[in-house]
Amino acid sequence: MLLKLSMAKTLERYHKSSYGLIESQQSLDDERSSYLECLKLKSRVEVLQQSQRHLQGEDLGKFGVRELDQLECVLDASLNRIRSKQTQHMFEQLSGLQRKEKDLMDINRALRKKLAARPQVFFEPLAANNSSHIRYNSQVAQNNAEGFSQNVNAILPAWMH
């Protein structure tokens, strides 16, 4: 049993030394590739920052006529894309507003028809007194108002309540 235990320890040490070297070699390779990738990304960031400065009109002193013309073309193309997207967005908003306007006009038309179909008597003259005073009939007005609000709720979309 003691022999098995010492044999297991020996094998364990052998595996650590043999495979440990392989693992350490792989970690060194990974570290090198990560470092190279970091350098590439760092240089890419510098190039992009320089390009951004050029597009903002900074550091243009060393540019020749050809480079300035190319930069102008890039800026014109970018500006055209921006204007195109802005125009498209405005047309989409306009068409949405036109749809809402049409819907509201239809609702308004339906409400006017319903209002025209209702009797317009809310007041009645006093029977006991022939003076020009008019008594308000609250029951008729209340019934008309309740019916009108129910009809409006049936016609109007939920966002208008």
From TrEMBL:
Domain of life: Eukaryota
One cellular component term from this protein's GO annotations in UniProt: nucleus
K-box domain mapped to chain residues: 31-121
A Pfam family assignment: K-box
Xref: InterPro entries: TF_Kbox (IPR002487)
GO MF term list: DNA-binding transcription factor activity
Protein name: K-box domain-containing protein
Organism: Salvia splendens (Scarlet sage)
Highest classification ranks of the organism: Eukaryota, Viridiplantae, Streptophyta, Embryophyta, Tracheophyta
